[in-house]
């Protein structure tokens, strides 16, 4: 009997710990849900000055918003769910491509050929095909639109439909992972901790809702054969925002605003 | 499937994906089979064969797969219904990368991955993780033997669910090198959440039916009733256990449930006594 009591005591102790974890998880889930209910996946164009409302009492930030406004006209906010880089980047890139038929075509061909190289790298064909099909469907539906305006509207609508939008994110994550694995010798020096490139891909790139770092951006850009300018805005002392072009030396095609933990899309003057 | 096709929005990528998976898995293999319920694309039932050369050899394990509305962005939950000695029954378990966060599920995994991972993960040590059981090999062998008698209230007997066993190792020729590497990285863990009790209550009704619909002459039948009651009703413990030759099995079945039930009963008795004592002192 005493043994039994001891056992159950231990069990309660364990359950106490688990409940703590569970509470934290539950709170996280609740926060995530609140976020998703309050922000669209990809928002409408807003003036840069709309940022002022967020920092009305913060001199450092106000100064930087002013600097940002001298270079950029609009901002398009994305939902802060950990996918914001991938969602914002693919939206911004496709939107930009729409204004140039030839570049769009080149990208379309690149996308068309991307599946086989992923399968060659060992990604499961069955599911890669699933994401690929939807990715291509979205590109096709957008390019089939008669006018640029219609195409932009279609793009915006599809990127705000959870199903399609998330599928775009997944496929871009897979392309990024593929790029990292293809050039693993190069990327391995950027990975912190004792992890291989493949571990890193499985843990930080392929799962949804995992936030993106420099290395994700570099690989995603290489995979799509383009460049991104990331404009950093934090509480650092300088009066100006800092700009980074990734991969280094590339011509920026998409502009993203980075505030710690989050990316939004920027539109130059 | 036709029924399902008319019910769901086929344009939704998630629905399309599940339809594709249902088609891919329609033909039973030697190791696994899974299909959606007739009226619900987001709940599947599966049967897996215990991995050969382990204490689960010869066992057939049946269970449910619950798919979140966000699937494949979020992982499926697996619930085993057949007592197996490795995972608790009627409890959600889900996949993640070993030793890593539970949210490391990848959308490029599928229900097939989940089933293969389940089979591959069965012989690994329980090591005290949530939802795991650490029964002895003998207990597991006994459960494996009995597993063939399991009857699901939806799917019926499990004995004809899989393709004939030709004694191949897991995956046979169909498992690619990448998949085998992948399977080594996946771990399954129980989900500890508040919906667990609810889940059990939800289970209670159908499982009673299982017991009733089974042949009465079988000793198994009585056992199932006892087993289910132990899981679902606390007061079941006060009933004398039906005389059974297989005491080992009895012990193993009760092990995971009895401690909790006992402590609840003890606390109830102690508080009753305290109440009575207090009443005697103050009111009489």
From TrEMBL, chain A:
- In this protein, the active site sits at 81, 84 (nucleophile), 262
- GO cellular component terms attached to this protein's record: nucleus
Q: What is its EC number?
A: 3.4.19.12
Residue ranges of the OTU domain? 73-269
PROSITE patterns reported in the protein's UniProt record: OTU
What class does this enzyme belong to in the EC scheme? hydrolase
CDD domains in UniProt: OTUB1
Please name the GO terms that the record assigns under molecular function. cysteine-type deubiquitinase activity; ubiquitin binding
Under which name does UniProt file this protein?
Answer: Ubiquitin thioesterase
Q: Which UniProt keywords apply?
A: Hydrolase, Protease, Thiol protease, Ubl conjugation pathway
Which reaction(s) does its UniProt entry say it catalyses? Thiol-dependent hydrolysis of ester, thioester, amide, peptide and isopeptide bonds formed by the C-terminal Gly of ubiquitin (a 76-residue protein attached to proteins as an intracellular targeting signal)
Organism field: Oryctes borbonicus
The cross-references to PANTHER family, in alphabetical order and at most eight, read: UBIQUITIN THIOESTERASE OTUBAIN-LIKE (PTHR12931:SF15), UBIQUITIN THIOLESTERASE PROTEIN OTUB (PTHR12931)
Family of the protein in this entry: Belongs to the peptidase C65 family.
Show which residues form the site (Interacts with free ubiquitin): 232, 234, 258, 263
Q: Which GO terms describe its biological process?
A: protein K48-linked deubiquitination; proteolysis
From TrEMBL, chain B:
The alphabetical list of record keywords is:
Membrane, Transmembrane, Transmembrane helix
The residues covered by the UBC core domain are: 13-163
Write down the SUPFAM superfamilies for this protein, in alphabetical order. Answer: UBC-like (SSF54495)
User: Out of the domains of life, which is the source?
Assistant: Eukaryota
Spans through the membrane: 261-282
What InterPro entries does this protein's entry cite? Ub_conjugating_enzyme, UBC, UBQ-conjugating_enzyme/RWD
- PROSITE patterns in the record: UBC_2
Q: Where is the signal peptide?
A: none
Indicate what this protein is called per its UniProt record: Ubiquitin-conjugating enzyme
